Amino acid sequence: MNVFNDLLSIKRFRESQAELALAGQRQRFVLAQEGEAEARERLERYTQWAVQRERDMYGALCSRTVRVREIEEVLQNVAALRDGERSHEASLQEAQQQLEAERQALADQRARHQAASRSTEKFVELAARHLEEHMQILEQKEDFEMEEAAMQIREREEWGSFDEYEEYEPS
Question: What sign does the dihedral 50-53-59-62 (CA atoms) show?
Fold first, then answer.
């Protein structure tokens, strides 16, 4: 049974390694969720700020007489705001892609852990079946030995009754 114990310890070690990897992947998934939520929040805050900033700039232009250069500066600033928004959108898209990659890795890690668990369970089941069969063989052997011993006792008793007849010999 030592080989079974060694193999079982290897199976359990692999299962625990898969469990640790799964826990690590869960943590990376949670971090990716947090990163995606933060990127989404930054985009929303930036978008709100950019809209307000654009209104303020256009409001300042509309409230007085301005030069063409000031209009061009406002247009450049609005374009910069749009670039900032696209940059935040790209960051959000990267965070979403990272989240999806971590989600897939988590699913893969769950599958590996389940496979390791099933492997351990199957091995334990096979070992138990083997032990049960071994015990049945031992019981059968013991029963056979008991029957053989009983048969020998009966034979001795039968031979013992013949011994009584041998003592009497007709002349």
Answer: negative
For residues 99 and 53, give the distance between their C-alpha atoms in angstroms, rounded to a whole number.
31
Q: Which residue has the tokens 């609005």?
A: 78
C-alpha–C-alpha distance, residues 96 and 94, integer Å: 5
Token digits of residue 57: 């700039």
- pLDDT tens by residue, 14-47: 999 999 999 999 999 999 999 999 999 999 999 9
Neighbours of 124 (CB within 10 A): 14
pTM of the model: 0.68
CA 165 to chain centre: 81
Closest to 113 in 3D by CA, of 4, 6, 5, 25: 25
Q: Is the pLDDT of residue 119 over 60?
A: yes
Look at residue 162 in the predicted model and tell me its pLDDT. Answer: 53
**With contact defined as beta carbons under 8 Å apart, do 46 and 140 qualify?**
no
Q: What is the pLDDT of residue 105?
A: 96
Sequence spans of domains, the chain: 2-115
The domain 2-115 having CATH identifier 3.40.50.720: the answer here is no
